[in-house]
Amino acid sequence: MRIATWNINGLRARLDYVFHWLDSRRPDLVGLQELKMHEDLFPHAEFRARGYRAAVHASKAWNGVSILSREPATILQSGLPGQEHLGTRLVSARVTGVTFITVYCPNGKHVGHDDFPRKLFWFDALLSYLEERHQVSESLVLCGDFNICPTPLDTWNEEELGGKIFHTDEERTRFRRLLDWGLVDLYRERFPQERKFSWWDYRYGAFHRNRGLRIDFLLSTPALAKRLRRVEIDRDYRKKKEGMTASDHCPVVADLGAAVSLPPILWASANEGNRAIRKSPFRTGERRFPSRRFFGHRRTRGTGRLGNRPSEQGSGGFPTADSLGIGERRGPGD
Prior knowledge:
20% helix, alpha+beta, 334 residues, six-stranded mixed beta sheet, single chain
């Protein structure tokens, strides 16, 4: 199962760009944020033509969230209870045994603004919602734009920005409480020391100078975290595509394996892709994967190493649908 989160910064302005990404990456479950359109205007037919159903909670001009799914979804919640006055910022659904929640958390503007304590209260309400409605034991994903840099590793300039909005102790404490409840930051689980970002200002050449922030997250309960096979910040989709302008955020994407008992797997980063090594439960030492396709990699003949097969890779290091053996997918009505 491929899951993803993405703040698209306006669906009307980004619709064809989103379709480009969907056709390339072929995710199964996606949380979209900042739709900036009323839910009555959501283009359900266009998404359905590409094989996606959509659960939408949105309002005119600002905010708005949606869940795209290939399989039927049962909506569980639209809006964070008690926080509706801050806009359409949460939707959750049950899809193929997974509780999928996507959020667009308040920005807060700056620490002296009235919106800053409102942001903190919103996060308190989010934690209460999880504690009252869900269990850590279930298969649950909480994803979205959190508007928080949890650690100095998640910002391009902690020295200058520390203590300012997104970088305050109060915000970071709220994020840690979500992890303390039992959620796992999937990207940080796989890459504990990587400094990569998911948002860059449109101005000042920030993207090309890599002056960004990591504020978009895929969080999950342990039941799903142990199924993690691959996770990446899809930086390639912060670039222009065929003349289309990207969002100021890029997607975060993860591949989850089947819910079966498997030997422990260790992952390491290899250039733009991932190299997988499996520890044998039957003998000491390392045993490489056999020579077969696995997330767009193959074993390099005579070396015992896994190498990339460029013809099977999508841009940004992700395997294409063809390399994964997905082939053509039929729409929900087929």
